[in-house]
Write a structure and sequence with these properties.
This protein is mainly beta. The chain folds into 2 domains: about 170 residues, Immunoglobulins (Immunoglobulin-like, Sandwich), CATH 2.60.40.10; about 70 residues, Immunoglobulin-like (Sandwich), CATH 2.60.40. It contains 1 helix and 17 strands. It is globular. The protein starts with a helix and ends with a strand.
Length: about 250
């Protein structure tokens, strides 16, 4: 079963790399940072074992009206945790159509495609996507969810946002906030990696098939020559003695 799920996730990566669009923008509600395409991850700490909401705005910057669905993938979720989802037009006074953890009983799970719940997003409009996360009481750990913006047919993954939720028994103050930026992205000849909040970060760079093509470290900045890399989707995984591994996506176009 583990091999089957791993193969499925790899298939999602490949489809996502083929269908990712620059004309879909995903913002955390009230913020301007684009979290789409896996370039950034939204991370948060669960305030308690009670269910809490994580709201996003999904903008249609294409030239055509869209009927999008949402596919939720549980990449790593502690036992007993549950989650729900609401998805609807930004003007929907009811917050769209909401689905409970009982309804979302498969992994992955996609919102239904019937006429009763599909809605039109005109160019420039946005939908409201609200994830409801419900940690199990006393089950501490880290959960990793991915939410794909999916075509009306339910077969094409157009863009995505990753969500990391920590539920810890004792929250300690964070002295420094670790930030990593990759520019330009998409890249052609080079990528500049900038890091702050840590002295040294180890990283590896893999292609969409999981082949490791580079291992190195970055102190405050690092320039990678990408002129001889093939065009495509790549993933950089970073880690340090004080942080758990995290991944950033970069697109190389020649």
């Amino acid at each position: 079963m583990t091999k089957i799920f791993t193969l499925f996730i790899l298939t999602l990566f490949l489809q996502f790399g083929a269908w990712a669009q620059d004309n879909i923008v995903i913002n955390y509600d009230g913020q301007a940072t684009d979290l789409s395409s896996g370039l950034l991850t939204y991370s948060t700490i669960a305030p308690s074992a009670a269910v809490f909401d994580i709201p996003f705005d999904v903008y249609n910057n294409t030239a055509n009206s869209q009927k999008w669905r949402i596919t939720r993938v549980q990449l790593n979720v502690p036992a007993g945790w549950q989650d729900g989802l609401c998805w609807g037009h930004s003007t929907d006074p009811f917050g769209g159509t909401c689905y409970s953890s009982t309804q979302m009983n498969t992994n992955p799970w996609t919102t239904p495609g019937g006429a009763a719940v599909l809605f039109d997003l005109l160019p420039g409009e946005h939908g409201k996507m609200k994830a409801g996360i419900d940690p199990a009481d006393g089950v501490y750990g880290t959960a990793h969810y991915r939410y794909y913006i999916t075509s009306a047919s339910g077969t094409n993954f157009l863009d995505s946002v990753d969500v990391i939720v920590d539920y810890v028994a004792d929250i300690k103050p964070v002295k420094d906030i670790l930030t990593v930026t990759l520019v330009p992205n998409p890249a052609s000849d080079y990528i500049n990696i900038s890091a702050s909040g840590t002295e040294t970060l180890q990283f590896k760079m893999v292609d969409a098939l999981g082949n490791v093509i580079l291992r190195d470290q970055v102190n405050s900045s690092k320039k990678i020559n990408t002129s001889e890399f093939r065009s495509g989707v790549y993933f950089l995984t970073f880690e340090s003695p004080t942080t758990r591994p995290f991944t950033r996506k970069v697109i190389i176009r020649h």
